[in-house]
């Protein structure tokens, strides 16, 4: 039996992954979906700086004036790690797409000069001190106070899907057979479900 629900999403923060940008396919598909189906939702996709501390400061500045009970966060890969931190900090619903579990370990090999995927002409330097900054944002151990939907591809060629599933065992997990880290052929298929989860603030409605 259906009920009337006044609380729906008004503000969505999308956080891209390492070396990615607001121009990523998933970010743009999300923006287009909400523009078409939920035009009342404001979607923000900031360009995150290489420094995790600076990224956290940018995120906090972005959501500072948002209604925290009507916001949600969505993140991919490293953006999923950041999204976990946001969700723990603001007790808001989150969607994590192949989220990084231990980026302090995994990104150590990227210390030095790197380029952006979508703008290879733009280089940035990933500093050694960023590793400790990543550890400082680890939300492990923080209680999951709001609904989480975690999309995990068993075929992820970058991250270990079992680590992701174990880390987010208390969340609603959508585990996909095969597919890749970017969810190249899966994201569009599951976007309606993801968007509904976000718009209803993670509430299961019948």
TrEMBL record:
Transmembrane segments: none
Protein origin, superkingdom: Bacteria
InterPro entries recorded: AB_hydrolase_fold, UPF0227/Esterase_YqiA
Gene3D superfamilies according to UniProt: alpha/beta hydrolase
Pfam family for this entry, one: UPF0227
Signal peptide: none
Name the record gives this protein: Esterase
Organism: Lampropedia cohaerens
């Amino acid at each position: 039996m259906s009920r009337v629900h006044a609380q729906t999403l008004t503000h969505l923060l999308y956080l891209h992954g390492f070396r990615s940008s607001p121009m990523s396919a998933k970010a743009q598909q999300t923006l287009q979906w909400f523009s078409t189906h939920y035009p009342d939702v404001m979607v923000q996709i900031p360009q995150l700086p290489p420094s995790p501390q600076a990224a956290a400061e940018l995120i906090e500045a972005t959501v500072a004036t948002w209604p925290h009970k009507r916001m949600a966060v969505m993140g991919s890969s490293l953006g999923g790690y950041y999204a976990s931190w946001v969700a723990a900090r603001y007790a808001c619903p989150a969607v994590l797409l192949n989220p990084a579990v231990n980026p302090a370990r995994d990104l150590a090999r990227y210390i030095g000069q790197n380029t952006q995927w979508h703008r290879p002409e733009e280089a940035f330097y990933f500093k050694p001190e960023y590793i400790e900054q990543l550890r400082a944002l680890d939300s492990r151990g923080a209680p999951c106070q709001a609904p989480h939907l975690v999309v995990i591809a068993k075929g992820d060629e970058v991250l270990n899907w079992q680590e992701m599933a174990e880390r987010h065992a208390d969340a609603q997990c959508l585990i996909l057979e095969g597919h890749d880290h970017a969810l190249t052929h899966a994201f569009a298929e599951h976007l309606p479900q993801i968007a509904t989860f976000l718009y209803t603030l993670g509430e299961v409605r019948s």
